[in-house]
Design goal:
It is a single chain. By secondary structure, the chain is an alpha/beta fold. It contains 9 helices and 8 strands. Strands 6-5-4-3-2-1-8-7 form an 8-stranded parallel β-sheet, covered by helices on one side. The two termini are 13 Å apart.
């Protein structure tokens, strides 16, 4: 029986996140939110200082570090398990030194050629997402003949390249990149076809939280607040648990934790 997925609570310390609009740009507010995520059931707090919403521009590494490092250090000092969400090798290195224990790179090490060496040297888990380019241009790259097989094959090639660069295979976690260079239909097809990605033999982390394709559900027609997508996110988390994913990445930790409790109870009923 698959184990309960880990829950990564999302903590964006940016002024322009699509989901929370800079609510946690202040370090003190960010630390309070990180502790709240843990209290709600997060196993890890995933901290990011650069928005990757569609169309977003890049942020200088110095500014990214100014945003994330005080929060990483403060939460790590309080015993919180912290993941750093960054495409920048210098930011990853500094965050690891401040107490982060996982590097979550939406580019899978493609955006910064120095990233694989940082991760290999640190000997930490590395979340490798399916990625076809930066946010400003990714929509134009959402072209597939068979999205499931192409995502699988592109991730497989990326895994081999990272192993060749010194990252241990058992430290690589895969992320199918829901919402990145994918239209709504692509996202649903990838979710339905996760078995093909699991054949690669690496744990899967899946992040669907509050993403635009969930807003296309009939029940959410006309709903503009991204938080309205929290219930579909929790339902998706439950379905992902039944498929045996390693982790889910969400904004509303309490809702997903409750959904996973239902899955646990369902599985625990004697046959």
């Amino acid at each position: 029986m698959p184990e309960r997925p880990l829950v990564f609570g999302i903590l964006n310390v940016t002024p322009d996140s699509f989901s929370d609009g800079g609510r946690f740009a202040d370090p003190d507010a960010a630390v309070r939110q990180g502790l709240r995520l843990v209290a709600d059931g997060a196993d890890w707090v995933d901290i990011g200082g650069e928005s990757t919403r569609p169309g977003a521009g890049r942020v200088a590494a110095e500014e990214e570090q100014r945003r994330v490092l005080p929060v990483v250090a403060a939460l790590a000092e309080q015993g919180v398990r912290v993941s750093i969400d960054t495409m920048n090798a210098d930011t990853a290195r500094a965050a690891l030194a401040a107490g982060a224990g996982i590097v979550n790179d939406v580019s899978g090490g493609l955006a910064d050629p120095a990233m694989p060496e940082v991760v290999a040297s640190a000997r930490v888990p590395f979340v490798v997402m399916h990625w076809r380019g930066h946010s400003a241009a990714m929509s134009a790259r959402a072209v597939y003949d068979d999205v499931v097989l192409e995502v699988r094959d592109e991730l497989a090639a990326r895994v081999q390249a990272l192993i060749d660069q010194g990252i241990a295979a058992d430290r690589i976690v895969l992320d199918p990149g829901i919402g990145f260079a994918k239209e709504s239909e692509h996202n649903w097809r990838v979710l339905a076809g996760l078995g093909a990605l699991q054949e690669l033999g690496h744990p899967l982390l899946v992040g669907v939280s509050r993403k635009r394709f969930l807003g296309g559900l009939p029940s959410l027609s006309g709903a503009e607040d991204p938080a309205a997508r929290d219930l579909p996110t929790a339902v998706t988390s439950a379905l992902l648990a039944l498929q045996g994913v390693w982790a889910v990445r969400v904004h509303d930790v309490a809702g997903t934790a409750a959904a996973l409790d239902v899955v646990d109870a369902w599985r625990g009923v004697p046959a």
